[in-house]
Amino acid sequence: MNGKMTYLGCCVAAALLSSTAVAQSNKNVSADDGKIERISVTASKRKTYLMETPGAITAISQDQLTRGGIKELRELTTSIPNTQFVVSGTDSGIQASIRGVRSGNNTEIGDPAVGVHIDGIYSPRPQGALALLYDVSQVEVLRGPQGTLFGRNSTGGSINVIPNKADTSDSYSSVVLGYGNYAHKQLRGLTNIAVNDRFALRFALMADRRDGYIQQDYDVRDINRPDIKDPFTGKPMVADGRPDTDQRENRRVGKEDYYSNADKQAVRALARWVPTDKLTWDLTLEHFADKSAGELFLKDCKQAKGTVDQCTQQQFYANINVPGDMDMTIDTTRSHLNWLINDLWSADYRFSVADQERYQLFDEDAGFAAAPSRAKLDSFSHPLLFDRYARTDAQFKSTIHELQFTYSSNDLKFVTGVFSMREKNKIKFDVELVHGLRHSALGYHPAAFSYPQDDRRANADAVFGQFDYQLSDKQQLTFGYRQTRDEKIDNGGVGYELVFSDKYYNGKYDPTKNGSIQGDSLTKEMGTYPPLGQVLTAGRRTYASEDWKKGTWKLGTDYRLDNNDLLYAFAATGFKAGGFFEDFDICDCGQYSNLPYGPEEVLNYEAGYKGSLLDGKMNLSAALFYSDYTDMQVTNNQKVGTRPDGSEKTHNVTTNIGEASLKGLELELDYIPWVGGRLTGYVAWLNARVEDIPFEDAYYCSERLEYGQKPCAGKVDISGNSLPYSPDWSTSLTLKHTLELTQGYALEPQITAHWQSKMYTSLNNYDGAHLSDAQDAYWKVDASVRLLPAQGNWWLEAYGSNLTDEVVRNANYFQFRDGFIRSTYNPPRMYGVRFGYDF
């Protein structure tokens, strides 16, 4: 409560301190008539105005994106109520969480819980979210299930990125250049060519280069433990000048290639043809390339302080023997044909073909291992050395069609259509575990795993419609329905494993003669590197298909008050399909399962208000909601069977583990408090709690005993726990003011302050010292100041983000633990200058 009161106090103080400047600025206003401009949105699959559309919607313009330094969806967290974005280090995917609804499975098997659309066309892969935010008209975020109009995988909500179209009215160009700390270089450019009033071309590009902000060392660790004897030779394991970590992928790299860097570029070519007054065709060709190194799971130094694992380096530090290597491209063709049939009817046909290819090397351990005082050779939880990395080679191809008819009369408006998606995926995921589970029970040898999925398919077909009927001049009734069929197919997927066997060496190394593995003894003729079947043993191929049929609906009403403010209420549902993994021997006894899981569903009840106040100078929106979240899909490492010797066998799987309730309140404000000023922001409350989930308590069991904390208790009742990435409170406020200077120049400072309460990153909700899975409450402050000339064709801006340099955890790592918490993190303080020019 003290944090929230301080926040409100700062806002009031900022307004009072600005009063002197207000008296000097009486000409420039935020809109032509001193009122807030009307913003059109596509949340109803037809053009409506934001403040006249029932539902919780946030619309963000390109100028807001630029001023906020927002280049990709992950940077929108502070801009949208009850919304978080989580980055996956292993696959460069971005998963959104809206009102507590999210997905934890980024693989080719999983589906997001928040659908990403580009110009209204569904984008099935979360990596596509990296490529979107340049030369856009606006970004629309719809909160709550969108199962009727947007359908597939929109149980949490939907994000629609709307690029600018080619403009037939004029020819023009613009460029934005930027330079910042960590040698951050940015380029945004566009040119629009109006060939005539019927045909136009548009070209847009972006490039983003930045050094990594972590300190990255070259990992050549050499074990020096004379108290431990080599399990093969019996000699003390002392340093001998040869690295013990795997050196097959190791190389020295510069800061520009460190993990956490940026190396992205994209180009978009658009054409608009208007052959008649009633027919418009938009065609888009888009290419995106990402050669960034990727993210890392770093040790949480704040929690490790005071323990044997205390950091000896800064928070953003890693010791790397597998430098990040990513080559991801996404090539997309989109087409939109609009036909104005007559004054009442129109038709839209949207088509998209996307081809994503990705190769990625990822250092999973980041050079962290258990402290020497607890590390042992015969220890699963605290191994002598942890050395694990992953290699991905994947291709995702999708084709999407949507045909839509729209009818609009005074009393009745409706949208109806059909949707079809075909996705074919091919992926090979390899894991090398050279050190980490060396144990007498396993023969002290490395392990290797490979999961080639040569033909994974996802098909979806749907028919939908939504009707708005005017009951009176003030009240409208809405009914929508969508019937969906989702299908998933695996044609021959298989898992290859070699679990701690001397076959790993492929006859190229004999540890009984040469002792335990040393990194420079490993070659690319071992483990997962040779052709599959030569070293690793294949499991059983999977030939399976599952389909799910589901109807989702929306029923609501809205009412206009005498002052034209809007009251609305509705109930709506969302649905996300189930899935299955490759056939897997669940007990090492010949008993196979593809570990299937079912669909999840959300039923949402919502009531809201949207009003224009103070003679059009203030827009206020409020949404109150309650949702039942059933058969929630959770992905983690779980017990799948029992081996003949009685030991448990675990696997990373997705299961439906219970129910949760979501309730909350969202208030959004857009206000012109004085001439030249603009105040925007939100306050959000969210109570996302587990109701009925059988849960296995296996969280840092040995460490909890070491620190004298409550021991693991097996199956436990976690009713009342918060859903991951669901802070109870969050708020953001942006204040912008235009100061008129001499000779027609203007200065436009802007400051944004975001605060959110504590949130957890897993269902454990564990708060024990040194082992918490929570991100504590934090502030994020961004600011910029822009200089504008009299003629208005250029601008110069200085900016800073995360000015207080907060260290904020993003996602936790739960695969192997080593005694301490590891997480990905949001970037540290960033600052620089940007220059824009229109011509």
Q: Can you summarize this structure?
A:
The chain is 5% helix and 51% strand. The protein has six helices and 49 strands.
Task: Please explain how this structure is put together.
It is globular, with a radius of gyration of 28 Å. Strand 34 (633-642) and strand 35 form a beta hairpin. With 839 residues, the chain is mostly beta strands. The strands form 11 sheets. The protein has a 22-stranded antiparallel barrel. A 5-stranded mixed β-sheet has the order 3-8-9-6-7. Helices cover 5% and strands 51% of the residues. The model is unreliable at 1-30 (pLDDT under 50).
List keywords for this structure.
839 residues; mainly beta; 49 strands; 22-stranded antiparallel β-barrel; five-stranded mixed β-sheet; single chain; disordered N terminus; 5% helix
Number of helices: 6
Quick one: biggest sheet?
Answer: 22 strands, antiparallel, barrel
Helicity, as a percent range: under 10%
User: CA-to-CA gap between the ends?
Assistant: 50 Å
Quantity of strands, as a count:
49
Supply Rg: 28 Å
Percent strand equals over 45%
Structural class, from secondary structure content? mainly beta
Q: State mean pLDDT (0 to 100 scale).
A: 89
Shape, per Cα inertia axes: globular
Low-confidence stretches: 1-30
How do the strands and helices of this protein lay out in sequence?
Elements: H1 2-17, H2 19-24, E1 40-41, E2 48-49, E3 57-61, H3 62-67, E4 83-87, E5 94-98, E6 114-118, E7 121-123, E8 136-143, E9 157-163, E10 172-180, E11 184-196, E12 199-210, E13 215-218, E14 225-229, E15 236-237, E16 262-276, E17 279-290, E18 298-299, H4 301-304, E19 317-320, E20 325-340, E21 345-363, E22 387-408, E23 412-435, E24 447-470, E25 475-493, E26 496-498, H5 511-514, E27 537-538, E28 542-560, E29 566-576, E30 584-585, E31 592-593, E32 600-613, E33 618-630, E34 633-642, E35 648-656, E36 659-671, E37 677-692, E38 694-697, H6 701-706, E39 714-717, E40 729-737, E41 739-740, E42 746-756, E43 759-760, E44 774-775, E45 778-788, E46 794-801, E47 809-812, E48 822-825, E49 830-838
